[in-house]
Amino acid sequence: MTASVVVLILAALLGIQPVTTDLYLPALPALTSGFGASMSQAQLTLTALLLAFGLSQLVWGPLSDRFGRRPVLLVGLSTYILAATGAAMAPSMEMLVAWRTVQGVAMGAGVMCARAIIRDLYDPAEGAQVMSKALSGLGLIACLSAPTGGLLSEWFNWRVALVPLAAFGAASLVLVALRFQETLGHAKPHALAPRELARNWLHIARNPTFIAYSLLAAASYGGLFTFLAASSFVFIQVLSLSKMQFGMLMFSMSLSYLSGTFLCRSLLARVGVRHAVAIASGMTLASGTMIGLFALAGWSSGPHGTWFIILPFYLFTLAHGVHQPCSQSGAVGPFPRIAGTASALNGFLMMVAAFAMGGWLGWRMDGTVFPLTNGIWFWSIVISVTGWTLVQKHGVPKPDPIVRD
């Protein structure tokens, strides 16, 4: 595979996540009222998906170390298409949640394999650069997702807004089937043995570099998820934006993230991974603090409240474009021989943070902006502390002991 084909495949595999989460957000209030469901049930369509996404990676990772990335991708993407079709035709909120859960399981195969493929092909420093290019593709996909969902929901209905998910899954499956070549150099015949699996998980979880970068990845995604899970209710129901206006707002936010991936590559070339993370951590803390203080001052609830949230959040997403390439490649970096298992554990921890935040939001959503603003402020503090301490101390991976095949 050429380098450009690798980046294209990685962008498709990573891009399946914003397609699955962002595209249906403008339709979330409409499907909630259409089913006569509560806000907490509506949140479950996202939190159940992400919990399944996180848990499934613990299975997909060892499977990919045992049998290779290609068969896992083919099975996962085929399942994703089936689940996306089922979700669009769901007759009840319960069935929609069930199909979204299956989607989360299938999505785990693609995203987990993307991180493992990068470690299969590149060392950690180069891997961060390649990951940032792939996440630029993700950012472009995310830019298109919310406006597309807003248009389809506005012109048709929420069911039509879920149809592109199946189409994207089908296109990704064709790309993988035709162009992807196996990257796993040597299969691990004992990767699925319970004792070996437990030993590998413990070995990975105790590695300080993995801890530092996984905490950074989880906190950064936790902040983004807070926005994704609460934004449609806050901006549409509390601040009275139309679905189309909300879709364009999400487009601008994704554009900021896309810019952050370009900033990431520039910083990596100039100052390296740890200093890039430190700079981005300062941006994150400034963003979260402004969002929190503006809300406390009452400015975020006024006639121009949208801008007192979204303008500082652009800075958060810009920094997110730096944190994610560095943290996702850095967490897997020490483990070239069990990259699938390490990628799976890293992804699982990110989704644990998201699921916990989703549960808190479902309990705290009260018709005000504060669950959104306070949540982002909290995660900005966690990100900055992690980026300025653990990543600076443990951000350079040490040689990993040989893992038995």
Based on CA atoms alone, the radius of gyration comes out at 20 Å
Class by alpha and beta content: mainly alpha
Largest sheet: none
How far is the first residue's CA from the last residue's CA? 26 Å
How many discrete structural domains? 1
Instruction: List the total number of helices.
Output: 14
Note the beta-strand portion.
Answer: under 5%
What are the segments in which pLDDT stays under 50 over at least 5 consecutive residues? none
Q: Which architecture name does CATH use?
A: Up-down Bundle
| Helical content band | over 70%
Mean pLDDT, as a whole number? 86
Helix and strand run:
HHHHHHHHHHHHHH
Overall strand count: 0
Supply the CATH class.
Answer: Mainly Alpha
Shape: globular
- CATH domain topology: Growth Hormone, Chain: A
Q: What is the CATH H-level superfamily?
A: MFS general substrate transporter like domains
